[in-house]
Each structure stands twice: as C-alpha cells, then as structure tokens.
Amino acid sequence: MQALISVSDKSGVLDFARELHALGIKLLSTGGTAQLLTEAGLPVTEVADHTGFPEMLDGRVKTLHPKIHGGLLARRDLPAHMAALGEHGIETIDLLVVNLYPFEATVARPGCSLEDAIENIDIGGPAMVRSAAKNWKDVAVLTDASQYPQVLQELKQQGAVSTATKFALSVAAFNRISNYDAAISDYLSSLQPDGKRHEYPAQSNARFVKLQDLRYGENPHQTAAFYRDLHPAPGSLVTAQQLQGKELSYNNIADADAAWECVKSFDTPACVIVKHANPCGVALGAGAAEAYSKAFKTDPTSAFGGIIAFNCELDATAAQLVAKQFVEVLIAPSFTPEALLVFAAKANTRVLQIALPPGGARPWDQGRNAQDFKRVGSGLLIQTADNRALQRSELKIATTVQPSASQLDDLLFAWTVAKYVKSNAIVFCGGGMTLGVGAGQMSRIDSARIASIKAENAGLSLKGSAVASDAFFPFRDGLDVVCEAGATCVIQPGGSVRDEEVIAAANERGIAMVLTGVRHFRH
Q1: Which tens digits make up the pLDDT trace of 176-197?
Q2: Pairwise CA distance, residues 186 & 489, whole Å
Q3: Contact 299, 458 (CB under 8 A)
Q4: Closest by CA position to 437, among listed 522, 333, 511
C-alpha cells in the first residue's frame, strides 16, 4: 500500500505519517512535506524521484504527471487498467492526503494583492483530490486533519479503509473542492478594474452545510432542511446545543432566531418572547426572573406556545416562572442545574444553550449575519444585514419639549425592539418593558391601534409611555393615535416630506419627539 502526502497545513501530519509507516505503508511526498518527514527520520520518496520529472515553474508543476494520476485513477477491478499501469511502470496510490493552498486565508488578509491571490490558487492539489475522489472505491482521500484518526483506526483494526468511509471521504473531498473553487470565483468576480473589491461579486456562490432534515416546512405539505454557514459566527443560532426536548421544527428555528437576535441586542439582563416571528413581549430586569415577568405581562395570550430567549443565565427562580406556561423553545447562554431540573419534567420543551458572542451581547456585528438573502422568482436579493446600532449621541430632538433621561432610556429600548418587529411596526414601552406591540400591518395607523388594543387587553396603561415607529409617520394621524393612547414621547426616523407637519403636531400635543435618521423596515 502506498500513500501520497502533500499538505499546506501540516497540523498532525507528522504523527499520521509515522502511524502509516508503522503499518508498512510506503510514503510519497512533495516539497516542504517531504522535508518535514525526512527530518523526522521517516523513509519518504520525493514525487520528483517517483515520476522522474523535476518540479518546475516555481513549484507550479510537480504532481501533474501520469505516474501520479494513473496511480490514483486506475480501477483495480479492471484488468485493462492494471495492465496499462504495468506497461508504463506506474504504481498504485491507495491513500491520498492533501489539503490545499490557503487561498481563503490569503484573500482574507488586509492588503492582499491580486498576485498573492493568484499564487495561492492550487492546481495540482485539486487535480489529485478529484482523481482520488472519483476513484473512491480504490483510493481513500483525506482533505482535513480531522479525518486522520478514523482512517488510522480502520487501517489498524481491519488493514484497510472501509467502503463506507472511503465514500464519505470522497464526498467530503468534492465538497472541499467545490468550496475552494467558489471562494476563488467570489474573489475574482468581485474585483473591479481599479483593483478594489466590489461588495457584491458578479457571481454569488453561497455555501451551506446541512445540519438536519426537518419533519416538514412552514406547513406540513412542505419539505425542509436546516443548513448552516460554512464558517458560522460565534453566538449565532446554528451554534446552539439542544439540551432536551423534541426535534426542532422549521417554524421553531425561524422564531428562535428572531428571539435570539433580538435578546442579544441588549447588554443588561433581558427576556424576549416571540410568536410567529414577532416579539410579543420584551423587557429588561435585574435578572432573568424579573425580565421574564415583565415581558410576559405585555401579551400573556400571545406568549402561550411562544419562543422565550434570555441573554443571561436562567436560574431556578426564573425557570419555575417560565414553566407555568406552555413554551415551545427556551433559549439562554447558560442554565443552572436547578433550572434544568425544572424543565426535565417538561420533556417536550426544546431547551437550547447558545454562548453569547465574544465580549457579551455587543458589539452588534458579533455573531450576526453580514448579509441577508431573500428568494424571489428564479432570483435572489442580497443585502447587508440590518446591523446598524443607534448611539444616544446620534439622536436629534425635534420638538420644543425635551425628553428626560428616563424617557430617552425607554425610547432607545423601544427603538431596539421595533427593529425586530415586522413592518409596519409600532411599539409602546415604559420602565424597560414593552406595553403594546403592533406588527405587520399595511397601515401604520392600524399598527398603532393594534398596539393600543393589546395593551388594553393585557391591562397595561399607556399613560406616559414611549413609542417607537420603525419608519417615519407619513401624516400626523399616526402620531395623533399614539398620543391619544397616552404616549408622551416618540422616536422615529424622520425623513418624510411632511416631517414639519408631524413635528408641529407633536409640539401641539406637548410631547417629545426624537429623530434617528435611520429606518428599520423588516419584511
């Protein structure tokens, strides 16, 4: 048995090669890898000596040779193939260990030049990987150090790599080549004539890895699966560890993401309750229990069967409160053993643990998607994700009445919540909790009325409340509705041709109005 080892990332390769040698497997290698093995005292044949043809063109050509590809591609079960190898003095290669030039890491470096990028496009490596992967029944191809232990175990136990493992390695190899080529395409097709990179390349090559098949999609007649980014960000939903409960459904995952993205926007203990992709209750508190109690008060009816997310550890006190209602999914960065014991009695509740991004809940771009995608008929819309964080210093007070410090706190809280409510969004808040949420209406006035009705149904007063609108008020009528409901301060983007009319209405009613200059449509 013969193995060809040619790796850019040499992590673990020396120990792996030692094990192969101990098993009596002959070693072939190239360049720096061959030098590493030789210096370690392992008997290794340089590819140039094996082929009888020296490396050339600064290493651009070294493995592109019939003695390499013939040894990889020959089918052992076809006499004609084996006869051809014998005629030309070609030995079979039974194990290929290759990882590719670090193209992705190279182009990710600031100031990477086109020349550097081009020189890190591997040619021989992908060619060998494709040859070995195509002939997977006869050749085991390893493209990542994480694959070494499994292959060694099988070689030691049964003297060969199993058919199932060889096929899995082949699939992984083709996936690696696909991702590698896509990265090259993304980079090169983003280059502009002046050498700068365009934010949106001429061809988009999305790469996702399947995590699981789902029982069905948004509705039972739809099929579905759950995928993650090739390199998921820390603190994102796909990094969740499910501690207990039934399998997550399509809607569970979508709503859990909405809840988690919202709750990690706050840097003090917070609770978010989501139902049908909209927050129906959000609150801050001294701890998880207080935050939950306040969030639940906003809309107890909608909270039934909802998704509940915390950005702080869930303890037994909070767990006992949450356990009083039916909850589909419960999310937190950590749980005390006592809290988990509370939910152990509710076996169907899906409990997810997700570590917050490094540095806590902020900065906003930690653990968030850089881009958003939306499918349209035979097409795709791509945009930068709405990760805009609003600073207190950016607020513009547009009215004669100035908001107090506590009102500014409530306005910023309401503004953060409104960002995660489907448009048109109107959010009433007070004392660090939502009081009424109006979501997804065609008319902003209707959203305001619905928010008021919900507050009334929950027995919550809107007197002295703060209101956030995700987009400007096109007319004063929407402002009049929230004022009549009891609001005394409003935060909105501004930018309407009737801003002066709306600001005049706020002055007339004696309320404070703050403009952000930022809109948060969410469709």
Answers
A1: 999 999 999 999 999 887 778 8
A2: 47
A3: yes
A4: 522
* Encoded amino acid at 372, one letter: D
DSSP string, 65-117: SHHHHHHHH--TT-HHHHHHHHHHT-----EEEEE---HHHHHHSTT--HHHH
* Other beta carbons within 10 Å of 313: 15
What residue type is assigned to position 130 of the chain? R
Is residue 515 a contact partner of residue 472, using CB atoms and an 8 Å limit? no
- Residue 519: CB atoms within 10 A of its CB come to 16
What is the 3-class SS of 15-55, one letter each residue?
HHHHHHHHCCCEEEECHHHHHHHHHCCCCCEEHHHHHCCCC
Closest by Cα among 471, 478, 482 to 523: 471
State yes or no: is 276 an active-site residue: yes
The confidence band for 389, taking pLDDT boundaries of 50, 70 and 90, is confident
Annotated catalytic residue within 10, 81, 276, 346: 276
The count of other CB atoms within 10 Å of the CB of residue 119 is: 14
Q: Which of 316, 269, 266, 262 has its CA nearest to residue 292?
A: 269
pLDDT in tens, 414-465: 999 999 999 999 999 999 999 999 998 999 999 999 999 999 999 999 999 9
- CA distance to 255, 261, 412, 429, 435, per residue, from 405 (Å): 33, 26, 11, 15, 19
Q: Which residues contact 106 (CB under 8 A, 6 or more apart)?
A: 112, 116, 117, 120
**Residue 134 annotated in active site:** yes
| 12-126-17 Cα angle (round to 5) | 25
Cα dist. 476→440, 489, 509 in Å? Answer: 20, 14, 11
**pLDDT at site 384:** 85
DSSP 8-state symbol, 56: B
Dist. CA 515–CA 277, nearest whole Å: 27
- DSSP of 162-175, one letter per residue? -HHHHHHHHHHHHH
Q: Are 491 and 512 in contact (CB under 8 A)?
A: no
Name the CA radius of gyration of the chain, rounded: 30
Widest CA span of the chain, in angstroms? 97
Segment among 99-113, 134-148, 325-339, 361-375 with least mean pLDDT: 361-375
User: Exactly one of 134, 246, 297, 346 is catalytic; which is it?
Assistant: 134
Other residues' Cβ atoms within 10 Å of the Cβ of residue 300: 15
CA atoms within 13 A on the CB side of 432: 18
Where are any strands of DSSP class E within 200-357?
208-214, 224-229, 241-244, 270-275, 278-284, 306-310, 327-332, 350-353
Cα 441 from Cα 422, distance rounded (Å): 8
User: Please, are residues 458 and 479 in contact by the beta-carbon 8 Å criterion?
Assistant: no
